[in-house]
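Attaching the record inline, Q. Sequence:
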Amino acid sequence: MARRPLPAPPASLRGRWRRLSRRRRRLIAIVLPLTVALLLGGLAGVSVGALIQMPRVESLADFQPALITQLFDAAASASPPSPASGASC
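Structure, as predicted:
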């Protein structure tokens, strides 16, 4: 399959691009896509962050887990929850 050549840019852009030094053209060719990628990635990150529903810290004080955890010692007897953890029996 033969590839068709890309259409030439307008003459005004072509002339400006050729007048730039090779080093500057290479720098633009690297920096411009990276800048666009960073901006789009930042925008996506902020959007996802805004969509995540996180509970308020104040609401965690009233949280009651659905499953109570029990700790067992070496004799396989369950130890009662410590009063420091705030659990009630």
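The mean pLDDT is 78. The helical segments are 11-19, 22-51.

More tomorrow.
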